[in-house]
Write a structure and sequence with these properties.
heterodimer, A: D-Maltodextrin-Binding Protein, domain 2, 2 domains, five-stranded mixed β-sheet, 17 strands, B: 298 residues, mainly alpha, MetI-like fold, 14 helices, disordered N terminus
Chain lengths: 536, 298
C-alpha cells in the first residue's frame, strides 16, 4: 500500500511538473496582435534622444528606433549587450583594445523606405560623439575615449579609441543612442530635424502625437528582427498625475507604466486585482544627491558640509522611507549591487554612514560649532515632484532639525529646478538625482566629478580629475575598485561636496497579460517593446 | 450689564456694557452668525496657543507611528510620516489665519483707500483707475493668484502677496460705489468749503462712512483667502512641506492613502470647510447688522 501511494504520489508529482512545464511553455509562446496601452508620467520635451535625458522621450519614442547594440532584452538585469543593428555578437576589441569593428545588418530600412547602412550609424554617432558647436549632445562626455569613427563600406563600421576603455561598450549601448538616417541629418538644419520629426528603423512606426494626450505607434512589418514585434501597435498615454496612472491600470485603461510606482500603489493594485497583476522589482540605477553649493557661504566650508551629511541617518531612514517612497538602499556613489560598490564595512567608514547615529550627530554639532554655524538656516532647492524628491526632501529636513539646523523646502517645477542648478546657480543646498541607464559605474560616477557640467556643487578638485582619468584607462578591476574607494571617500567624506541620500528602487506592477517585458535596473533600458506581447 | 446711576436717577450704560448688549443682541438676532463667530474665536485661540495645547511637534517625523488610525494617543491619527494630524491641523490654523487675515486686511485696506479716492476725485483718474481694476477683475481669483505665485515663487510670504493682489480691485470696486453716493452728500462739500485737504476728506469723512460694506468684504475675504491658500498649497504652489497647512495636508500622502488611511485627508478637509463656513456665516450676519436697509426691514 505504502509502495502504491509512493508510486501514485510520484506519478502525480511528475504529471504536475510536466503539466506545469507545458503550461509554462505554452504561456511562453508569444502571441501576435493587440495594442499595448501604457501610461507615461511626462511629455517628451522634443523627439531627439541625442539631446534629451528624460524617460519622457524614451518610453513613447524608443520603440520607433534601433540602436547599434542594446542591453539584452531577455536579460536586462545582466548588463550583457547584444547586437541590434550589428550582426552576430558584440565584437571584441582588437589592436590592443583600441579598435572595434562592427558588421552592420543588411536589408534594414528606415520607416520612410531608405536603406540603412553603416554611413547612417556613423552619421548618428558623429552627432552624439562630436557634434558641431551649438548642437547639444547629452552623452558626448561618455565618449571621451573615442578617437575616430569610419565606415569603410556599407556593411562595416570601425570605431578607434584613444586608449582601451571598459566604459566604451556600455556607453555605446545607452538607450538614447538612436540611429538616424544620414539623409535626414544631411538636410538643412538636419541636426535639429529630429527634434520635431520621427524616422527610425525600430519595431514601430510613428503614427500620431496629440500633445498632452498620447503618442501612438503601429507595427513595422519590415522590422529587422524577424517575427517581431508581436504587437500591432502601442499607445503611450501621457498622464502626469500618479493617481491617474494607477487608476488607469486598475481599470485596465492601461496595462503598464514603465517608470515605477511607490510600494503603496503596488500593494493597492495587488489587493484589488490579485493575480491579474504581476509585479516586477529591481534596484534602480538612480539615486538622490544632496548637493552643497561650494561657492555659497557657509557651504564653502567643508566642516559645514560634513556636518550636514553626518546628520542624516540613512540606515534607519531607508527602513521606513522604502514603505512610502521609491527609495531603498543606502550606499555610496556606485550602484549598490555592482562589484565596484563599497561593502557595508567600507560604507560605515564614510561620513553619514556611521553605524552609530548618535556619535555621528554629536560630531555634526561639534563641526557646526567649530565653524560658527550652530544656528544654521538655509533653503533646500528641490524639484516639485512627489516621488521621491519631496519625500526625500521632507525627510532630510527632519534629519537636519536633529542637529538644530532649520531648513525651508523650496520645491519648484522641473524647468526652474534645472535652471537654478545650471544657470543662476543661486541655491544653497539642492536635492539632485543621478539617473543612469546602463550600469557602468566608471562612467556613472562622472556625475560627481567636479569638472562635470552636471555636478552642480561647483567644486574644484584636481585629485578627483586625476583619479577619474586613471579609472577610465585602467582595465584591472581590482585597481579600479581601489581607486573608486578613494574617489568616493573624497566626494562623500573628506570634502563632502555631495551627500548621497538613498538609491531608488524600481517597482513595476503591470497587468499579467503583458508578457515579454522584463524589468531593467533603469527606466531608460529595454523600452523598444519588440519582444512584448499580450496574453489575452 | 455694567451700569452707573447718574444724579437724575437714570441709568447710563457704559461702553463695556454696550458691547455686551451688542453681543447678546447679535446672538439673539443672528444665531448662525454667532456660531460662525464662535468658531472663528476658537480657531484664533488654537492658532495663538498652538504651542501650549499640542503635545507633538507638527514637523517632527516619527516613522514608528506611520499611518496610525485615530486613537487616544493620536485622536485624528497620523500621516505617512508618522506626524500627529491633530497637531498639524491646529498649527495649520495658524498658517491659514495668518495668510487669511494678513491678505484680507492688506488687500481690503488698499482697496478701500483706492476705491474712495477714485470716487472722490472722479473724472479722468476714476476712468483710468477703473479700467485698470477691470483688467484685474477679468481674471478669476485663483488664476490671478496662480500667476502671481508663478512670478514670485512659493512660500508663505509670496502666497500672502498672491492672495492680496486680487482682493484689491474687488474691494475697490464695491467701496467706490458706496463712496460715490457719499461724495454727493453736502457734508463733503462743507468739508471742501472749510478748506480741508483731499486726504483729510477721504480718510476722516468718507472712509468711516463706507465701513459697513468694507467690513462685510473683509470677513468674506478672510474665508476666501483661507480657501485660496489651501488651493495653492494643494497645487504645490503655496507653503511647502514640512510646514503644517491644511491645503498641503490634502496633497501627497492624503491622495496616495485615500483608501487605506482616509483620516489623512478627512480632518484637514473638515478644517478648511469649517473655517470658510464660519467666516461666511459671520460675514453674512455682520452684513445684516451693518446694512441700514436690511436693518430697517427687521
Amino acid at each position: 500500500m505504502k509502495k502504491f501511494l509512493t508510486t501514485v504520489a510520484a506519478i502525480g508529482a511528475g504529471a504536475a511538473i510536466g503539466l506545469g512545464a507545458m503550461g509554462a511553455s505554452l504561456a511562453a509562446t508569444p502571441k501576435s496582435g493587440g495594442v499595448l496601452d501604457f501610461v507615461v508620467p511626462s511629455n517628451p520635451p522634443s523627439y531627439d534622444a541625442h539631446q534629451e535625458t528624460t524617460f519622457g522621450v524614451i518610453h513613447p519614442l524608443a520603440p520607433m528606433y534601433s540602436l547599434l547594440i542594446r542591453v539584452d532584452p531577455n536579460d536586462p538585469q545582466s548588463s550583457a549587450f547584444v547586437c541590434d543593428l550589428c550582426v552576430g555578437g558584440v565584437p571584441s576589441a582588437t589592436d590592443g583594445g583600441k579598435t572595434y569593428t562592427f558588421k552592420i545588418r543588411t536589408g534594414v530600412k528606415f520607416h520612410d523606405g531608405t536603406p540603412l547602412t553603416s554611413a547612417d550609424v556613423k552619421a548618428s554617432l558623429d552627432k552624439i560623439v562630436s557634434p558641431p558647436k551649438g548642437v547639444p549632445s547629452s552623452r558626448k562626455a561618455t565618449f571621451v575615449m573615442v578617437d575616430s569613427i569610419s565606415a569603410p563600406n556599407a556593411e562595416t563600421l570601425v570605431i578607434k579609441l584613444k586608449f582601451p576603455s571598459g566604459a566604451f561598450i556600455p556607453a555605446l549601448g545607452a538607450p538614447f543612442n538612436w540611429i538616424y538616417s544620414k539623409k535626414d541629418l544631411d538636410r538643412q538644419n538636419g541636426y535639429s530635424w529630429h527634434k520635431t520629426h520621427v524616422n527610425g528603423s525600430g519595431p514601430f512606426i510613428f503614427k500620431s502625437h496629440v500633445a498632452g494626450s498620447h503618442i501612438e505607434g503601429t507595427k513595422n512589418p519590415n522590422y529587422h528582427h524577424k517575427g517581431m514585434p508581436y504587437l500591432d501597435g502601442f499607445k503611450a498615454i501621457i498622464a502626469p498625475k500618479m493617481n491617474l496612472r494607477v487608476q488607469a491600470i486598475r481599470a485596465d485603461h492601461a496595462a503598464i507604466e514603465f517608470r515605477g510606482f511607490p510600494p503603496k500603489h503596488r500593494d493597492d493594485l495587488v489587493k484589488a486585482l490579485g493575480d491579474k497583476i504581476t509585479v516586477q522589482e529591481s534596484d534602480w540605477n538612480c539615486g538622490n544627491l544632496v548637493v552643497f553649493n561650494t561657492k555659497m557661504k557657509p557651504f564653502d566650508d567643508k566642516r559645514v558640509r560634513r556636518a550636514l551629511t553626518l546628520a542624516i541617518d540613512r540606515w534607519n531612514g531607508s527602513k521606513y522611507l522604502q514603505k512610502i517612497a521609491i527609495v531603498k538602499t543606502p550606499a555610496g556613489i556606485v550602484f549598490p549591487t555592482h562589484p565596484l560598490a563599497a561593502t557595508k564595512a567600507e560604507l560605515e567608514q564614510l561620513a553619514g554612514m556611521w553605524p552609530d547615529i548618535k556619535k555621528s550627530r554629536a560630531e555634526a554639532r561639534r563641526l557646526l560649532k567649530e565653524a560658527g554655524q550652530e544656528n544654521l538656516t538655509f533653503d533646500l532647492h528641490n524639484r516639485a515632484v512627489d516621488q521621491p524628491y519631496k519625500h526625500v526632501g521632507t525627510w532630510l529636513i527632519d534629519q537636519w532639525s536633529k542637529i538644530g539646523v532649520k531648513v525651508t523646502q523650496k520645491a519648484v517645477p522641473t524647468a526652474e529646478w534645472y535652471s537654478k542648478f545650471r544657470k543662476t546657480k543661486d541655491y544653497q543646498v539642492g536635492l539632485d538625482a543621478n539617473c543612469q541607464s546602463v550600469v557602468n559605474p566608471v562612467a556613472d560616477v562622472a556625475k560627481v566629478l567636479c569638472s562635470s557640467t552636471n555636478n552642480y556643487s561647483q567644486c574644484e578638485n584636481p585629485k578627483l580629475e586625476d583619479l577619474f582619468e586613471k579609472m577610465n584607462k585602467e582595465s584591472d578591476q581590482a585597481k579600479v575598485r581601489t581607486m573608486m574607494r578613494e574617489y568616493e571617500r573624497i566626494v562623500l567624506d573628506e570634502e563632502a561636496y555631495i551627500g548621497h541620500a538613498l538609491w531608488w528602487y524600481k517597482i513595476n506592477p503591470h497587468r499579467s497579460y503583458v508578457k515579454g517585458w522584463k524589468i531593467a535596473p533603469s527606466h531608460y533600458l529595454n523600452q523598444q517593446l519588440d519582444n512584448v506581447w499580450l496574453d489575452k | 450689564m455694567v451700569t452707573t446711576t447718574v444724579d437724575d436717577g437714570s441709568i447710563e450704560v457704559t461702553s463695556s456694557g454696550r458691547i455686551k448688549k451688542f453681543l447678546i443682541d447679535f446672538y439673539r438676532g443672528h444665531p448662525l452668525g454667532a456660531i460662525g463667530a464662535g468658531i472663528v474665536v476658537v480657531m484664533l485661540l488654537a492658532a495663538i496657543f498652538a504651542d501650549f495645547i499640542t503635545v507633538y511637534d507638527p514637523e517632527q517625523i516619527d516613522f514608528e507611528s506611520m499611518l496610525v488610525p485615530p486613537n487616544w494617543a493620536h485622536p485624528l491619527g497620523t500621516d505617512n510620516y508618522g506626524r500627529d494630524i491633530l497637531t498639524r491641523v491646529i498649527y495649520g490654523a495658524r498658517t491659514a489665519l495668518t495668510v487669511g487675515f494678513v491678505s484680507a486686511f492688506v488687500g481690503s485696506f488698499i482697496g478701500l483707500v483706492l476705491g474712495v479716492a477714485s470716487a472722490y476725485f472722479g473724472g479722468r483718474f476714476d476712468l483710468i483707475f477703473q479700467r485698470v481694476m477691470d483688467v484685474f477683475l477679468a481674471f478669476p481669483l485663483i488664476i490671478l493668484a496662480l500667476a502671481v505665485v508663478a512670478v514670485l515663487g512659493t512660500g508663505t510670504e509670496n502666497v500672502i502677496v498672491a492672495i492680496t493682489i486680487p482682493f484689491i480691485p474687488q474691494c475697490a470696486r464695491v467701496v467706490r460705489s458706496s463712496a460715490l453716493a457719499i461724495r454727493e452728500i453736502p457734508y463733503v462739500d462743507a468739508a471742501r468749503a472749510c478748506g480741508f485737504s483731499d486726504s483729510r476728506i477721504i480718510l476722516r469723512h468718507m472712509v468711516p462712512n463706507v465701513m459697513a460694506p468694507f467690513l462685510i468684504m473683509l470677513t468674506a475675504f478672510v474665508g476666501q483667502a483661507i480657501l485660496l491658500e489651501a488651493s495653492l498649497s494643494y497645487l504645490g504652489l503655496g507653503v511647502q512641506e514640512p510646514v503644517p497647512a491644511w491645503g498641503l495636508m490634502l496633497q501627497g500622502g492624503a491622495e496616495e492613502y485615500a483608501e487605506s488611511a482616509p483620516w489623512i485627508a478627512i480632518f484637514p478637509g473638515l478644517a478648511i470647510t469649517l473655517g470658510v463656513f464660519a467666516f461666511n456665516l459671520f460675514g453674512d450676519a455682520l452684513r445684516d447688522v451693518l446694512d441700514p436697509k436690511l436693518r430697517s426691514q427687521q
